Task: inverse folding
């Protein structure tokens, strides 16, 4: 099987999670320029706004980057057209099936990596002809499924013959090495990139991640089904359901209201204790994973 780095033309098999309203061109371009795969979060963006994000990213890096599409968005057809017109090479998808757009993607030469929470969906995506899947465990921040990363990755890797990217609870080289041992061909990290210099998130949000411990997150159940993970605060304590909205996320990410806004974060937040440049984060994680992989010994 072709390596992820060769398949996508990147240096490191590290994807940056598509954090809604946060994964914009300053962070995305920094990740791609450092050798990872930066991913623009298209959720909530109008077509013209998405086009601007793509063009601003291209101004800052010549390396590959991706766009994440939330497929339940009302303007998804418009967003797909923008990707094709702007020559985006890689797409990740969530919140629905990419089936209606697969022919369009393939005709445009776009590689497709859906985010999936189960073996069943991984198999369905393989049947659609996607290029790989991002298997995300419930440790992740944002929208989550029911299986843990530790249990999900080996089962997905065993069930499909396409590359598996591990996501959820990965924040250092140890986590990356573990993901590869479990059968992944790459990793996706979101929370770790929240603590980078280039991340365009309010300082209060970033500091909340840095001050979090291993029990700082909670799961919020949405009234229409599904769940998201974020930091515990006044909002989550008052309303454990139907609390998520783009406005609530913006209150935290833009205005810095970390008590009445949604502070999406994965459980790995307790591991992250300092702000680093994106390049340093990626290089340190990869070097640590390589070192661990060479030294693994089971007594």
Result:
């Amino acid at each position: 099987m072709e390596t992820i780095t060769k398949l996508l033309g990147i240096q490191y098999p590290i994807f940056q999670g598509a954090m809604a309203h946060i994964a914009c061109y300053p962070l995305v371009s920094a990740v791609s320029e450092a050798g990872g795969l930066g991913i623009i979060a298209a959720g909530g963006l109008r077509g013209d706004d998405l086009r601007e994000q793509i063009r601003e990213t291209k101004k800052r890096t010549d390396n590959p980057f991706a766009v994440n599409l939330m497929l339940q968005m009302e303007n998804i057809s418009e967003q797909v057209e923008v990707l094709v017109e702007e020559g985006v090479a890689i797409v990740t998808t969530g919140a629905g099936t990419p089936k209606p757009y697969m022919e369009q993607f393939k005709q445009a030469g776009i590689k497709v990596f859906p985010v999936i929470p189960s073996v069943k969906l991984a198999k369905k995506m393989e049947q659609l002809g996607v290029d790989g899947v991002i298997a995300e465990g419930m440790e992740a921040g944002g929208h989550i499924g029911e299986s843990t990363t530790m249990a999900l990755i080996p089962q997905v890797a065993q069930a499909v013959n396409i590359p598996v990217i591990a996501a959820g609870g990965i924040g250092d080289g140890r986590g990356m090495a573990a993901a590869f041992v479990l059968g992944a061909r790459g990793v996706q990290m979101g929370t770790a990139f929240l603590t980078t210099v280039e991340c365009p998130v309010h300082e209060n949000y970033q500091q909340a991640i840095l001050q979090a411990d291993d029990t700082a997150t909670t799961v919020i159940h949405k009234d229409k089904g599904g769940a998201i993970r974020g930091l515990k605060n006044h909002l989550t304590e008052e309303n454990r359901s139907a609390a998520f909205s783009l406005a609530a996320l913006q209150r935290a990410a833009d205005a810095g209201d970390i008590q009445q806004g949604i502070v999406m974060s994965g459980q790995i937040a307790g591991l992250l204790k300092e702000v680093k440049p994106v390049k340093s984060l990626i290089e340190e994680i990869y070097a640590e994973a390589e070192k661990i992989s060479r030294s693994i010994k089971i007594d």
Summary: The longest helix spans residues 278-295. Residues 8-199 form a domain with the TIM Barrel fold (CATH 3.20.20.70). The two ends are 30 Å apart (CA to CA). The chain is about 40% helix and 15% strand.
